[in-house]
Amino acid sequence: MTVTQLLRGKPARLITMPTHETLAKAAEILARERIGAVVVTAPGGDLAGIISERDLVRAIAKDGPAALTSKVSETMTANVTCCDPGDTIDDVMAWMTDKRFRHLPVKENGRLIGMISIGDVVKAKVEDVERESADLRAYIAGT
User: Fold this and answer.
1) How far apart are CA 82 and CA 76, in angstroms?
2) Buried b / exposed e across 9-44, counting CB within 10 Å, b at 16+?
3) Is 119 within 8 Å of 38 (Cβ atoms)?
4) Which SS3 state, helix, strand or coil, does residue 111 take?
5) What is the pLDDT of residue 4?
6) Is pLDDT of 2 > 80?
7) Which of 94, 86, 116, 112 has the alpha carbon at shortest distance from 103?
8) Is 67 left (phi over 0), alpha (psi -120 to 50) or beta?
9) How confident is the model at residue 143, as a pLDDT?
10) pLDDT per position as a tens digit, 63-97
11) What is the Cα–Cα distance from 67 to 113, expressed in whole angstroms?
């Protein structure tokens, strides 16, 4: 299975926010959308970084409630690893596990087209295993 196939099962809407917004706004978006990370975009729409729940918690632990007034650009992860639609689920799972991140933006020809999470990847792997198991049972049963 590839990232393209995984993206087909997700809503096409990609939630983003600009670099000049505050961490309070990021927290509002994360809570409202029930997501764990937001893509941060530079003027013109290019990928500038990613802000996650983990980033917010670390900022608040360091600076207290005042952190919420700081700009997203001051806290976001700027050096973001991205994947390609043709990458396999096994490959992205290995990267996410090795690098210890849970969200991975997807770029095609330099353009941001989506985001996948470790939850998406695990769900796809479980579905593959269940499908394979059902096929094997059917084969063994001769149906």
Assistant:
1) 15
2) eeeeeeebbebebbbebbbebbeeeeeebbbbbeee
3) no
4) strand
5) 93
6) yes
7) 116
8) alpha
9) 67
10) 999 999 999 999 999 999 999 999 999 999 999 99
11) 30
Burial (CB count <10 Å: 0-12, 13-18, 19+), residue 107: middle
Q: Which CATH architecture has domain 3-141?
A: Roll (3.10)
5-42, pLDDT tens digit by residue? 999 988 888 999 999 999 999 999 999 999 999 999 99
Residue 112: count of CB within 10 angstroms of its CB: 17
The predicted model scores a pTM of 0.83
Query: Could you tell me if 90 and 2 are in contact, meaning their C-beta atoms sit under 8 angstroms apart?
Result: no
The number of angstroms, rounded, from the C-alpha of 142 to the middle of its chain's C-alpha atoms is 41
- Report the distance separating Cα 16 and Cα 29, nearest Å: 9
